[in-house]
């Protein structure tokens, strides 16, 4: 790996911004007039989710919560209901908490600088930087997964992720444009997403290929270096689809804190690793097998065996019509859909 100065920052910026100006993807939150609220919402949704998948969710969410104030004042159950399908529900909880903090402590206004934004709930270095740069055109070092890939290849960084993140941020900071923060941030993220892709980088189309060490060595796809993945634990549990004669479904709400907080779910035997085994909530007589589903979380793999039974009465607090369901996690929507098809 060469020193940061082997790439002339101003020439790099000129090449990158010229390429970006000639054409890039249109996104509703990338408009110069997009509000900080719109940019923040989009960036939170884009964590762990692709642009193509996010756009319809983004539009529906804004239709229901068009302003920061409307989001802050909404019940968390309503927010979770409109987040369904995006997964990683902690993002929705932190979004709601941050909106309330902004309304209460900042008069409904986003701070302008990266340092101030970092003090808000749920905002890490990347989200704070991208809001500062793209919403306020304030100098900031925006580094997401796409930028990490670009930088690691430009400098052929041998250190493995995640340990390499500090090195990559420092190298990225050398190249970032203090004069055009908004354009530069959008351009380098676009480069990583559309040209410097993980498995099939389009090096002939890359505006900065002349400075790329990995391109010169022909080993682009080996960067960024990553530490070997640990074996994913596999857990097995049971979930019950409990219905009554009218087709209503028994659902229970999860605790207000922790994994998938406040979401509803089918009763189960304890699907989280190391969770305390649980019994069915009602006296169940005949139980019919409904197959099983597999779901992969970030830190474990789950096989959920499904059983169906019909009962005479479901308590009112747990009784839901299948066409008026509360917010369910991706896991439970998958389980419920599969079980209903088998009954």
Automatic annotation (TrEMBL):
GO biological process: base-excision repair; mismatch repair
Family of the protein in this entry: Belongs to the Nth/MutY family.
Function comment: Adenine glycosylase active on G-A mispairs. MutY also corrects error-prone DNA synthesis past GO lesions which are due to the oxidatively damaged form of guanine: 7,8-dihydro-8-oxoguanine (8-oxo-dGTP).
Cofactor(s) the record lists: [4Fe-4S] cluster
Gene name of this polypeptide: mutY
Protein name: Adenine DNA glycosylase
Taxonomic lineage of the native organism: Bacteria, Pseudomonadati, Pseudomonadota, Alphaproteobacteria, Hyphomicrobiales
EC assignment: 3.2.2.31
Superkingdom assignment: Bacteria
InterPro entries listed in its UniProt record: A/G_AdeGlyc_MutY, DNA_glycosylase, Endonuclease3_FeS-loop_motif, HhH-GPD_domain, HhH_base_excis_C, HhH_motif, MIG/MutY, MutY_C
